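Okay, is this right?
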Amino acid sequence: MANDLRETVSALLDEELSVAELQALYEGTPDRARLANEQRRLAAVGAAMRNEWPVVHADLLTRVSTAIDEEPTVLAPRALPRRRSTPRWTWASLAAAASVAAIAFVQWRGADAPLPAAGQLVASVPIQDTRPVAASVTSRASVPSAAERDRLDSLLLRHNELAGAQHMKGLLPYTSVVSFTPND
């Protein structure tokens, strides 16, 4: 069917169709757009074979360049600088980090302060109702020795090196929870 259409359109362009064949072509083709495209394509092929190109004036390039140069240049308004906004969650994270740092500082300062003797604490409290009680006194706070402090420092160093590599989110990166037993 496609070859028949091409041959018929080619015969039309070569003026080899009779009036009856021409009328049958236009009435028998349901796709008029396809027929028109085929006719234009074959007409261009024929013009190229006969060397019948349209005449192009020599000053066409000059006229086009001049017309482009004469067009007004449309300048877009300069983009406003982006305002760098800090998300609210950043401030919340910083506040939480500051709180954890303050608690750690207070705890650290309290751990370094020497504890008063038990006798001083008892002497500072006024005597009200005294009853004898049998109890053993154990000290919950102890100052680690130099070797224990070095061991604790190396443990903290290793823990902090690993904590940053795990890309933890939330409040956890700002805290360091470490357990230490001096007898180990």
